[in-house]
Every structure is written in C-alpha cells, then in structure tokens.
Write a structure and sequence with these properties.
Elements: H1 8-14, E1 22-23, E2 33-37, H2 48-56, H3 75-87, H4 95-102, E3 112-116, H5 132-138, H6 143-153, H7 155-165, E4 169-173, H8 178-185, E5 193-197, E6 200-207, E7 210-215, H9 227-241
Parallel strand pairs: 2-3, 2-4, 4-7
Antiparallel strand pairs: 1-3, 5-6, 6-7
Amino acid sequence: METDSATTEFKRWATSFSGCDGGDMGTESSPSIWVCGIEWGGGWDDATELQKEMAASTGTPPIGYTDYKHNLAYTYNRQTMKLLSAINGGRVEDYEQFALEQKPFVLGESGYFKFNLYPISFKNTNHALWIEEFSEVTGLKSKQSYLEWCRENRFPVIKAWAQRYKPKLIICFGKTYKSDFMRSFTDIGSAENHEKLMDRDLFWYRSGETMIAICPFPVNRNGLNSNARLQAFGDRIRSLCHTV
C-alpha cells in the first residue's frame, strides 16, 4: 500500500501531539471541553516548517498559547470564542470578555484544549496544495495517501486521548469531515442525532460521558457565519451537555 511508506520520523511525529495548539486536556474528575478542527490553516509553502515542527516535537501535549489575545487575532479563533461563550451560558457578543476571563487554550489555565485531526498546515483542504517536498519528508506520495495514513494510524491515537482524558464535550468543526470525526471519537454503534438550527446541520453523539458535536465550519458562507447562528448552536449544545 502507498501509505506503508511513511518515514520513521513522520510516524513518530504524526502519532504524537502534532497539530495541537494545546491547553488543558482535563481529567476524568475535572473534564475539559475540546475543540477539534481539520488542520492548521495558513499553509506551509515548503517543507521547512514541517521539518521544524517534527524536530521540535517532545511527545507531550503542547502547553497552549502564552497570551489570551491569540484567541482574538484570527477569524477562526474569534468564531470559536463566540461559540464557547454561548456554551458557557453567555452571549456571543461578549466573546472578548469571555476570552479575557476564561482564557481558553492558554498556558496555566484550565478547561479547554484545541487541536486538529491532521497535523500538516495547508491554506485550505485542496489536494493540489500537496507538494513534492512533503512527500520527501513524510514518505507519502500524495495528500490522499497522507489522509489515509492518518486515518489508519493517527486517529486511533486521538481516540485513545479521548478515552484517557474523558472530555465532557468535543466540538468538531467541518461537517464534510463527519466520518473522520466519528472515526476519531465515537464508539461503534453510537446513535447519530441530527437536527437543523437556522438552516445549518448539527450532528451529535455520546460516547460514555463525552458528548461529540459536529458543527459546520465557522468561517465560510455555508457555515456558522453569523452571531445568531453561533448563539443558536451554542445554546443547543449547552442544553445537550446538561441532558443526562
């Protein structure tokens, strides 16, 4: 198989805490809320950043941001703060105050952890952005091979994190990746729940004490692109988390 050719260095990195921004993973007695995206945005134009990330990997969870203002610096992070503010019982309009007081994903703070299904940074999910240098570093011939390798080798590691740390809620962004989120977090036979909120799809599941919510991506025209939608999803997820 094409996916069997991954380099030793890439295997080590991709099955550790690569692709994570970090924060507090929580414990069974003090569970956190996890936010899972697809992959880091921005994009690496060559393999230099990938090699740096691989070399710097320690095999331990990242400590998180050093400043809460990082949560306000990018559209994706701001939208995430708005949703979390609503889930916390507040209003999305107060997201800056929420970010200041709760400091999600920030070093030394508790209650929130942020990461991605896939560890390499791309500007978007277009397979054409895979470059030959990535193949040389990873040993994988294409973006498709990389995705398949992660599904087989990285997703079980992510699932083990959830089983170990038992988050109370995992928010997943990107409904077109629903099968990947399910593979990473849900149990075989988990009941799928689906509802529409303001013309947008919410899928949710339960795995033990963990609730998994798969939401539209928060930064595109078909996603959670308004305060009203973010409030509706946040309020609904909050109510589901309090339902036994």
